[in-house]
Design brief:
This protein is α/β, with parallel strands linked by helices. It has two domains: about 5-55, Spermidine synthase, tetramerisation domain (Spermidine Synthase, Chain: A, domain 2, Roll), CATH 2.30.140; about 60-280, Vaccinia Virus protein VP39 (Rossmann fold, 3-Layer(aba) Sandwich), CATH 3.40.50. The chain contains ten helices and twelve strands. It has helices at about 60-75, 90-95, 110-120, 120-125, 140-145, 170-180, 195-210, 245-255, 270-275, 280, and strands at about 5, 15-30, 35-40, 45-50, 50-55, 80-85, 100-105, 135, 150-160, 180-190, 215-220, 230-235. The strands form two sheets. A seven-stranded mixed β-sheet has the order 8-7-6-9-10-12-11, with helices on both faces. The chain has a five-stranded antiparallel β-sheet with strand order 1-2-3-4-5, with helices on one face. Strand 6, helix 2 and strand 7 (about 100-105) form a beta-alpha-beta unit. The model has no long low-confidence stretch (mean pLDDT about 95). The structure holds S-adenosylmethionine. S-adenosylmethionine binds near residues 53, 62, 112 and 160.
């Protein structure tokens, strides 16, 4: 039997490949081509339209940084909106925060949720059954258009890249609606690509965020299967002081939130350091 390989198709001229132990699901949903397989090197892997979304081996890096940084920077986020994140990993980590009272997750593709529950159960754990969680199958742009002003403290956008269904989550309208939804010290973070290969995504979406938020920046995480070096998480906040908290204050908040000892990438020091960007990334951000 010849080895079977899956090639990631994010970039036409370069990319990673996985040797497949066993294909677990291959579904063409109303929105995208969903594939989940068992790899030899990274546990189970999910691709959407040929792009790596999550692997069991390194999802913790990304989920921890996308969740703990905004919630601890805010300091008392009780109402959190999650957009995308169909695998449930962000939801699970949001619910680890003691002071979170409500976590609304809006995922456009019900098949992603269904298949993640079936084939990647460890990603979300029992987050789906938490009484604080509300899972909505719908388009994030519609949700933010209609939700009540000031009804959330933090918004986490864990979407696919700004192509196809994900595109609306990177628009002026989306950021203006998000600013309306957020309370006075509110903030929004989003997966914003790998700048070594996708600098335009960081630059163009940061310009749009700056139209609705006072403080626009980014922070980094090293996710092995988001190939190309650091990936960036886009940052937009109403209060610039949230970004420059000393690690001692971050540690105090993490202790109070009940997050300490439950992470494998995030630490208070990594949190503070993640905002210090190498010039090749900082050059794509608006001068503040
Ligand atoms: N960690 C992954 C990454 O960085 O590429 C993303 C994880 S998650 C699987 C991405 C999710 O965003 C997908 O399940 C996709 O269906 C969802 N999504 C894309 N566009 C959306 C939209 N307009 N509204 C809600 N969810 C959306």
């Amino acid at each position: 039997m010849t080895d079977s390989w899956v090639n990631e198709t994010l970039y036409p001229d370069w990319g990673q490949r996985f040797r497949v132990k066993r294909e677990l699901a291959r579904v063409k949903s109303d929105f995208q081509d969903i594939m989940i397989f068992e790899s030899f090197t990274h546990g189970r892997v999910m691709l959407l339209d040929g792009v790596v979304q999550i692997t069991e081996a390194d999802e913790f890096v990304y989920q921890e940084m996308l969740t703990h940084v905004p919630l601890l920077a805010h300091g008392d986020a009780r109402r959190v909106l999650i957009i995308g994140a169909g695998d449930g990993g962000v939801l699970r980590r949001v619910l680890q925060h003691r002071n979170v009272e409500r976590a609304v997750m809006v995922e456009i593709d019900g098949d992603v949720i269904r298949l993640a529950k079936e084939h990647l159960p460890g990603i979300a754990g029992d987050a789906w059954h938490d009484p604080r969680a509300q899972v909505i199958v719908g388009d994030g742009i519609h949700y933010v258009r209609e939700a009540e002003a000031g009804s959330f403290d933090a918004i986490i956008v864990d979407s696919t890249d700004p192509i196809g269904v994900g595109e609306v989550l990177f628009t002026d309208e989306f950021y203006a609606s998000s600013a309306r939804l957020l309370s006075d010290r509110g903030l929004i973070v989003n997966q914003c690509g790998v700048p070594a290969m996708q600098a335009d995504e960081l630059r163009e979406t940061s310009i749009r965020r700056a139209k609705s938020f006072a403080d626009v920046w980014a922070y980094v995480a090293a996710v092995p299967t988001y190939v190309g070096g650091y990936m960036t998480l886009g940052w937009a906040a109403k209060d610039a002081s949230l970004r420059t908290l000393p690690s001692a204050e971050i540690a105090r908040r993490a202790e109070a939130a009940g997050v300490v000892g439950r992470t494998r990438y995030w630490t208070p020091e990594i949190h503070a350091a993640a905002f210090h960007l190498p010039p090749y990334i900082a050059e794509h951000l608006p001068r503040t």
